[in-house]
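To: structure desk
From: M.T.
Subject: fold request, one chain
Message: Could you run this one when you get a chance? Sequence is below, nothing fancy, just the single chain.
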Amino acid sequence: MISADIIIPALEASSKKKAFRAIAEEIAGSIGGHADDLLTALLDRERIGTTGIGQGVAIPHIKIAGAERMYGVLVRLETPVDYDAIDSLPVDIIFMLLAPAESKTTQHLKMLAQISRFLKDTKTCAAIRATREAESLSGILTEWVNEQAA
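Reply: Done. Structure tokens follow.
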């Protein structure tokens, strides 16, 4: 099941790189990594191809050495940033997936698919954009998961 282990409800950033840096600094302690390593991995992943899937949404995903398990990080940006997304629109919702370096690709892909379905729902994205509280964002995710299970 999809989950957000870390929620950043109102991140201020003026670019994709600055957003990545702020996210990396915020989450490094929680996942047992170093912010610089996370930032480097994120930037390296973006060089392969954009993780901006369109409609103001991005799903960056990386594998991290030393991570004990998969982590989901849901971020709502206060101001959309240029992200080189596939539709050229700026991004204001980021759902980052961090997986252990030795994790199985199939599990990683299943989580990416679930995150993509979650963020392709326009009602869900509107609700995310309308709130600035971590608890409310967690509730939006929980409600969506429960609807999928029903």
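Reply (cont.): The CA atoms of residues 71 and 150 lie 24 Å apart. Let me know if you need anything else for the meeting.
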